[in-house]
Amino acid sequence: MILDTQLLYGLVGIFLFSLGLSSAFASSALLRRILAINVAGAGLFLLLIAVAYRGPEINPDPLPHALVLTGIVVAFSATALALALVKRLRETDDD
Amino acid sequence: MTDSLVWSIALPLSGAILSVLLPRAANGIGLASVLGSLAAALAVIWTVADQGPLTYAIGGWTPGLGIALRADGLSALLLLLSALVAVAASVYATAYFRQAEQRQRFWTLWLLLLSALHALFLAADLFNLYVTLELLGLSAAALTALSGQREALEAALRYLLLGLLGSLAFLAGVALLYTGYGSLDISTLTHRLSPGLTGWSAAALMTSGLLIKTALFPLHFWLPPAHANAPAPVSAILSALVVKAAFYLVLRLWLEPFASLSTPELVQMLGVLGAIAVIWGSWQALQAERLKLLAAYSTLAQIGYLFLFLPLILETSDETLRHAALGGLLLMALTHGLAKSALFLAAGVVQQHAGHDRIAELRGTAQALPATTFTLALAGVALIGLPPSGAFLGKWQLIAGALQAELWWMLGVVLAGSLLAAGYVFRLLGHAFGQARYPARSLSIGRQEIPALGLGLAATLLLGLFSAPVWSLLAGLAPAGGLNP
Amino acid sequence: MTDVVWGLLDLLLILALLALAWGSLNSRNLQRAVIYFIGFGLLLALVWVRLRAPDIALAEAAIGAGLTGALLLAALRDASHSPDHTDRPDRAWRLNPVPTLLSLGLAVALGLAYLQALEIADPQRLAVAVFSHLEQSGVSNPVTAVLLNFRAYDTLLELAVLLTALLGIMALGQARPAYAQAGPVLAGLVQWLTPLLILVSAYLLWIGAHAPGGAFQAGALLAGAGVLLRLAGFPDSHFPAALILRGMVIAGVSLFLAVGLVLMLVGRGFLDYPPAWAGGLILLIETAATLGIAATLMLAFLGGRPAAWSLDTSTTGRIQAADMVRHNTGDNP
What we know:
- The structure holds 3 protein chains of 3 kinds.
- By secondary structure, chain A is mainly alpha-helical.
- Chain A has 3 helices and no strands.
- Chain B is 76% helix and 2% strand.
- In chain B, α1 (3-21) runs antiparallel to α2, α3 runs parallel beside α14 and α12 (291-308) runs antiparallel to α18.
- Chain C is mainly alpha-helical.
- Chain C folds into 2 domains: 1-81, no CATH class; 139-333, no CATH class.
- Chain C is globular, with a radius of gyration of 23 Å.
- Chain C starts with a helix and ends with a helix.
- Residues 83-90 and 314-333 of chain C have low confidence and may be disordered.
- At the A-C interface, α1, α2 and α3 of A face α1, α2, α3, α4 and α5 of C.
């Protein structure tokens, strides 16, 4: 059962990662590309947290949890910078 | 002395933090912290030469639970290159940015980029490497956008997004390795990894992520616009070091954790991509109409040379051949780092002086900017690989190794690449030395021209004439197979 | 029996998660795509709870869904102002065969690799090492122990990443203008919510040592309060003076680095806390980090530099500058 949960959520994470990655390469619109990168990142986080899960009785492995927390903040930073670049590009178009 | 590992990262980081608070003093803070970081890098290489590889367990925790910093000959040499180029480009930057506000913005991001580079060269933990890669990618993209011009913004955004995709692929590999082998520490993984689907997938993901970042053909398309539109000192560090940092990681990973996974076909394929990059990059540089674009395409070619070495290093059981090739690779990388930063800094002077960098209209540059034109020539000598530059010795090793390994096609690639390089360098110098009818008065911009000249001289003379220490530093690095428990 | 219930719950969660992800990647309308993405983030927070990762759930809801969502919505609002340059929705979605096949191939290959990885793995991985050293870490929440002690260096660099993003944004241009003053209902709501968010954030910071919570969750909530105030029309003129603002932004990373270096200079080693002091030092660092994270996230939401960021606008800023200089040279070794 533990392995099943690990397996199930881990595979969903991998699927989201692949989906996000290919959408990021396929789409041309900037905002969509940024969304896709975020979905791909979330997929990886799901994979890591699934690996950390060790059943309802045993405490999960805290190491991947810490990595994912770091990852979430890094992903936010990158998204914020990318969106600011998009905003600035739009403003230069308007000028 | 192992504290110097920490200082080489902490000094630029402290400088960045301080200059957020005291932007008016940014010039002083920035110069002080890059000089301090150079001193730390010198201490690192001195200690490595004296005592062999260094490890620093941060927080006192054993690597695995905690994070370690590590320096061996390979990382110490690149750290020193980075600190050296950073000092020259920083001095240059104090005069390059004429607007106080822009200079202040430059300094904070610049110092963050340097901390990221140094942290990357010294990292011994895969997740820590992911964080340094993101720090590097974000600061590099922000610096590329600094001018606010449309082309620069577009290039920066593309650079940022592709860099993010590369980092994600890298992180996916790290997650798989942690799942299968339960560690993030590189040397632990080197002992544990064995051929299998987990290792292969992780290796494929991490390597392709890094190939995007190092701009190996055919993943190179983002590089020319980014490097050609960034401010000159930024272009210098991007071309000289940031792409090489990703290459360094490819080399490090395949020398250590992935050593047992390497196959002749795979390594040959990387070599062939390198060969295409050499020819394609040099050909594009020959066609380039702008000086900075020429320099950017030439970087693609130079990265290609580094990949050409991989078959000689990763797929040989002959220890002397391997050691010779590794030294040759490092000489190429170091020479290119110095020469390309010199070229970009000189290009910045030309651009500021002439108001443009169109190669065909550079007539009279030699009369107006003799020192800078001399720098262009020195950098050109090193890029072609003429003696006495370090690149000459590097190419020599490449040819010698290829002959020994009977990889004949490499000879043709090196020959063609060098001829094309001679072509684009002499085309540039031909225009720069053209006589203008009304030459502008001879100028001297010491703080910009001297650092560029210094880098150019170092590229042509220093490494070629004093190359022995490079080999002795690399002795004993990652013996064949990498599988000694 | 409970297994069946869990299984059904898992299935429902996963289907909803996949549907929202699919929607956010493929919806024709960009605005809808963003809404789906926010929903995806919120659902992900539930998944984290399901997988017993409450620390991540809090961070995901606040940062992954909340603040990222606010950023995306603000970006959409910018786009709607210049109708000619909106991101054109991709045409009616057709299954583009090449990327679809590639993504399926990638998913299958990675899925197989994952299966093999689970099979060869020692299921303990590093968990044993973390739990057996937990007592020496100064805190009893294992995630906080990893973040602020065992792998504190990662967290330090992560704060540097956040700072880099903010400085990059500040270098790009002016902030979005302040929003219109909110009507009485929203203003009243914000008046209630802000102190509540500040309280909860302080609680999360304090509790982080032994229960889910910590600097990132607390900082994100505090930033959420700031974003709410901004949305309710909080004007630029209410920002603190430039030097204080800058001091807040670097608070976390500078104190963290200073603690690390001081410990090295006194001969212990970089970030090597004396065990007796570890709890106190971690709380100190986390408090500064909360402040820094909150200020950074809030400013990042503005999409550019507000007038208050520039040091040259006021003379009062300069007087405070002199004060802060004296204050800060003491902190930095």
